[in-house]
C-alpha cells in the first residue's frame, strides 16, 4: 500500500515536470521570434521581418569576429524568454498546442504508422544524412566562393549560416542534457522524458532538424527569393521527415527542432547581416 501511495504522488510530479520543461523549451524559441520582431527598424517603413543593419565597423561579419558574435548569440538566445509579453500568447499558444498534439500522438505514430522495416528505416536515415551534409556544406561553399570571387554577400551568407548551425548545436545539446527523452527504438516507443537510459544521445529535440532549419533559415533570409526558400526549406523539411521515417526521432522531436532552428537562423541574420537588407527592403 505504501509503495502505491508513493507512486501516486511521484507520477503527477513527473508529468508536471515534463510539461514545464517542454513549455520552457518552446518559450526559449518563441522568445527568439519576439526578440527578432522587435529589433529597431532601419527606416520609417520597413518590412516586418526586415533585418536591421549594423552601424559599427567592428561588427562586420567575418571569421575573425565569429567567436565574439557566437557568444553574443548565445546570450541573446538563452535570455530571449524575458522578451515574451501577454500579447505574444497569440503565437505561443498555437505553437505549444501543436507540440502538445505531436507529443500526445508520438507513440501511436511510431507504433501504428511508421514502418518498422529495417531496410526502409535505414534508407531514410541515409537520406537524412545526405541532406544534412548538403546543408552543412552549402555555407562552406558560399564562403569559399565569396572569397575567390570577392563577393561579400556570399561570404557573409556562408559565415552567418555556419554561425546559425553552431548556435543550433549548443541549444539542442543543452536541451537534450536537460530533457533526456527516449528515442523511438527504446522502451516500446513510449518516448518518456527524464530517463537516464536515454543518456547524452537523447532524442528531444532532433539535432538534424534543428541544424537543418538553422542553416535553411539563415540562407533564406540572406537570399529571400522564392526559389531559394523553396529549395532550402524543402531540404530541411526532408531532413526532419526522414529522421521520423528512419525511426530515429518522434514527430515532436523534429517539430520542435525545426521550429527552434528556424528561429535561431532568422535571429542570427537579423543581428549580424549587412547584405540581406537590400533584398528585403521594398523599393521606393
Please characterize this protein's 3D structure.
This protein has 284 residues and is mostly helical. It has one domain (2-40, 62-280). The chain is built from 9 helices and no strands. It has helices spanning 2-37, 66-78, 89-113, 118-149, 152-179, 207-222, 226-245, 251-272, 276-280. Helix 3 (89-113) packs antiparallel against helix 8 and helix 5 (152-179) runs antiparallel to helix 6 (207-222). The longest helix has 36 residues, at 2-37. It is globular and about 55 Å long. The N and C termini lie far apart (76 Å). The model is unreliable at 1-27, 33-58 and 276-284 (pLDDT under 50).
Number of strands: 0
Provide the structure class: mainly alpha
The value of Rg in angstroms is 20 Å
Q: β content, as a range?
A: under 5%
* Overall tally of structural domains: 1
Distance from N terminus to C terminus (CA atoms, Å) equals 76 Å
In round numbers, the mean pLDDT is 78
- Sheet bearing the most strands, described? none
H and E order:
HHHHHHHHH
Q: Give the proportion of residues in helices.
A: 55-70%
Total helical elements: 9
Outline: globular
Give start-end ranges of low-pLDDT stretches: 1-27, 33-58, 276-284
Amino acid at each position: 500500500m505504501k509503495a502505491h501511495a508513493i507512486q501516486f504522488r511521484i507520477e503527477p510530479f513527473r508529468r508536471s515536470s515534463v510539461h514545464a520543461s517542454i513549455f520552457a523549451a518552446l518559450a526559449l524559441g518563441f522568445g527568439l521570434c519576439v526578440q527578432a520582431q522587435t529589433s529597431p527598424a532601419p527606416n520609417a517603413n520597413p518590412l516586418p521581418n526586415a533585418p536591421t543593419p549594423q552601424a559599427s565597423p567592428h561588427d562586420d561579419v567575418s571569421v575573425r569576429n565569429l567567436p565574439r558574435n557566437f557568444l553574443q548569440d548565445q546570450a541573446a538566445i538563452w535570455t530571449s524568454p524575458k522578451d515574451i509579453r501577454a500579447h505574444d500568447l497569440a503565437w505561443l499558444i498555437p505553437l505549444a498546442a501543436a507540440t502538445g498534439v505531436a507529443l500526445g500522438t508520438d507513440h501511436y505514430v511510431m507504433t501504428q504508422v511508421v514502418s518498422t522495416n529495417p531496410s526502409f528505416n535505414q534508407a531514410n536515415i541515409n537520406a537524412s544524412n545526405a541532406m544534412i551534409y548538403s546543408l552543412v556544406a552549402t555555407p562552406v561553399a558560399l564562403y569559399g566562393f565569396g572569397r575567390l570571387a570577392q563577393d561579400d554577400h556570399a561570404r557573409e551568407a556562408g559565415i552567418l549560416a555556419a554561425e546559425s548551425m553552431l548556435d543550433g548545436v549548443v541549444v539542442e545539446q543543452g536541451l537534450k542534457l536537460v530533457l533526456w527523452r527516449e528515442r523511438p527504438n527504446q522502451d516500446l516507443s513510449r518516448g518518456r522524458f527524464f530517463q537516464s537510459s536515454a543518456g547524452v544521445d537523447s532524442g528531444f529535440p532532433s539535432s538534424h532538424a534543428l541544424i537543418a532549419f538553422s542553416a535553411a533559415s539563415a540562407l533564406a533570409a540572406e537570399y529571400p527569393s522564392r526559389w531559394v526558400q523553396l529549395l532550402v526549406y524543402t531540404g530541411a523539411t526532408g531532413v526532419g521527415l526522414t529522421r521520423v521515417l528512419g525511426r530515429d526521432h518522434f514527430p515532436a522531436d523534429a517539430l520542435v527542432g525545426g521550429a527552434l532552428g528556424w528561429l535561431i537562423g532568422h535571429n542570427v541574420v537579423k543581428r549580424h547581416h549587412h547584405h540581406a537588407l537590400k533584398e528585403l527592403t521594398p523599393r521606393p
